Amino acid sequence: MYLEGDVVTALEGAEAHSEIQLSIKILEAQENERKRIARDVHDGPAQHMANAVMKADICKMVIERDFNEGLKELEDLKQSVKRALKEVRDIIFDLRPMALDDLGLNETISETVKMIMHETGIELDIKMKPVHKEIEPIIQVAVYRIIQEAFNNIKKHARASHAQIKLDYGTKYLMLVISDDGIGFDVEETLINARNKGISYGLIGIEDRVNQLRGSLKIQSEKGKGTTYTIKLPVNREVIKDEKKGN
Fold first, then answer.
1. What is the CATH number of domain 97-246?
2. Mean pLDDT to the nearest integer, 100-107
3. Of 31, 7, 68, nearest in space to 39 by CA
């Protein structure tokens, strides 16, 4: 098009291409999320429920032979069902943390942090400006997801003993900083490997989420010196629209 002198059409084509690329990324993210959910359900509650069905048959046979032994089997069955129920609730919470609607962003993050502390022993500091209606709900969900993905990375890879969350915001933008004192990593190399192999490592998920909301992401990390995520996001859709116009 450029060679034929049709510059306007070429520019429109470039913009359309950019929108298509973004749409493809969103579809890929949705499909990856569906695969993750299917895997979590298959490996977790589905297995427990299959075991529960088998245990129910075993309980029936054992009770007919030895009542007291049958009661023990029933207790095992109860524990298996309770594990399945917990895993279903965890999956539901990952899909949509209902606490965001009931407790708000600050309290939901605090509750999540308490769980992480209990699971890992990592010491966590939270410094967050109280959030009410200043930040649009869809942005609040994004903030929660970014923190969730960052801390999944910290739990799996960082070997950190201390981590920190800072959140502040103004009339147009919010600033989220997540840091840890873990072993660190080569950011560029990890991102390249993640993209080439189609493996998220959580970083691609954070990057895509920030880009979709027209925000900015900076990851600073050195081996042996920990990691810091600095994220800037619009506080509502109006700011996102203004960002698009500006671009």
1. 3.30.565.10
2. 86
3. 31
